[in-house]
Structures are given as structure tokens and as C-alpha cells.
Amino acid sequence: MNHALPDLDRLSDIVRRAAREELLPRFTRVTQEHKADGSILTEADLAIDAHLRAELHQAWPDIAFLSEEMDASEQQTLLDNPAQPLWCLDPLDGTSNFAAGIPFFGVSLALLCDGLVELGLIYDPIRDECFTGQRDRGAWLNGARLQTTPIQLPLKQCIALIDLKRLAPALRQRLIETPPYHSQRNFGSCALEWAWLATGRGHLYLHGGQKLWDFAAGTRIFAEAGGGSYTLEGEAVFVARLVARSAVASPDPALAQTWLTWLRETS
């Protein structure tokens, strides 16, 4: 990116304020509808989307804006110009949790340029936790440096964060019948799951299909904290394209490789 990057503190303030004004007052008092793909859309999604779009444009007018709530053709047009700096926003990641009154949701925002994520920010308004990452500079939680550490556990003693419903049936059945880990959870917000892994909350991760706005900020924060991640095919998770990507990860890169090996041998 040729120009100076947006200041992370200023960016964090904008996102925090928007979430507090648009999400928290609507939590447990939500109206909802369903999109064509069956996913839930709430008034809160649209309100914070509009709020952040306006504030980001005012603060950094030269950066374009892509949101989950936009039409796919608009999203693709923006991605077809990789040299144009681009915000990538999921205004409310974990909408189903939000609509059901489950306090695990957040805002995910990434800055893309030249096919890379320069900045990533994930904000959890319930816990007032703001996770940030800058390419080749590091990751932080509320300003404190994040750095993963080795996990001195075998697979069979690990806690895994797993979304079973998007996995291939054969792999899903193997995980149910012969799990290699101690136990598993699914929290329902891809962005916050990446952020939690970056802090060492959980040992293993598996998701069968995330969208660009699900993983853009999270993979940057996670990588800067020192975690290891792949697709089930062994590729980097992040690509600046509108394709679903699987995710295999661990805060410990060596454990991530062990986990990937087990999955590929049994998938």
C-alpha cells in the first residue's frame, strides 16, 4: 500500500463506538428476516453496516468498501481491482447468536491491498475485547501484545473448536465416531473463533467453509500472533476471492501440522 496505513487506535475507536451504538441497544430486542441463502439478516446488521460505511469513508475517503451485505456482483467488481485499497467488513459476525440472544458475536474488519490483508480488527462488544493485527508488525488485544506459545499436549488431550455442519459427510462421521481430541465446541462466530485462538483459547480449529469476510481479519490477527493455519488441502486460508475456504488451525504451528495430517489421512 503506497499511502500510510490507517491508525489502528483511531480505527478501533470508530468500530467500538459503532458497535456500542448500533449492536448493544438491539441485542435481545432484534427483528430479523432470512436471506435467499437461508442465513439470518437483522436490523442490527444493516444499521452498523451503514454506520461504519459512512464513518470509514469520512475518515479515509480513498479506501473502497466491501461488505457482506452487498450484492455479489458489487463485491466481485471491487475485488477485480486489487491495487485499490479495500475495506472488507462483516458488520455482525455471529448473527444467529445475536438473534437468539447468545452473547457471542462481533464486528470483523480488514484492510485489503494488492491481494494481502494489511490490517485486521475484530471487536467483541459484549466483553469489550478489540483484537487487532498489522501485517509483519504483530497482533494485540486491547493494546496488549498477543503471542501464541507451544501447546504441550497430544491431540487426544486437546480442546477443538469445530463447525461440523460444513464438513464433508465422511469426515464429519469420522470425527463423531473416532474423535482424535478430548472434546469439541462450536461457538458460532468465525471471526471471534480466530481471535480467541490467537489468544490461546482452544487448541485446535476446523471449519468446512468460510467466506472472505469471515476469515480476512481473523487470519491476519492469528498469523501475527504466531498461529499456524491451512485449508484442508494444505493451502493458505486467505485468498482475496469470493470462494468458501476450509480452515484447519492451532495456536501452535507444529500442532496445526499434526492436526492437518490426521484430517488428511482420514478425510
Q: What is the helical fraction, as a range of percent?
A: 25-40%
Number of domains: 2
- Strand arrangement across the biggest beta sheet: 3-4-5-6-7-8-9
Task: Provide the CATH top-level class of the largest domain.
Answer: Alpha Beta
Q: Radius of gyration, Cα only, in angstroms?
A: 18 Å
CATH topology category name of the largest domain: Fructose-1,6-Bisphosphatase, Chain A, domain 1
Most strands sheet: 7 strands, mixed
Brief overview:
With 267 residues, the chain is an alpha+beta fold. It has helices spanning 8-22, 43-59, 72-79, 95-100, 169-177, 190-198, 212-225, 253-266; strands at residues 32-34, 40-42, 64-67, 86-93, 106-113, 116-124, 129-134, 138-141, 144-146, 159-163, 183-185, 204-210, 228-230, 245-250.
Description:
The chain is built from eight helices and 14 strands. Helix content is 34%, strand content 27%. By secondary structure, the protein is α+β, with helices and mostly antiparallel strands. Helix 1 packs antiparallel against helix 2 and helix 6 packs parallel to helix 7. A hairpin with a 2-residue loop joins strand 8 and strand 9. The termini are far apart. The chain has a seven-stranded mixed β-sheet, sandwiched between helices. Strands 11-10-12-14-13 form a five-stranded mixed β-sheet, sandwiched between helices. The chain has a two-stranded antiparallel ribbon with strand order 1-2.
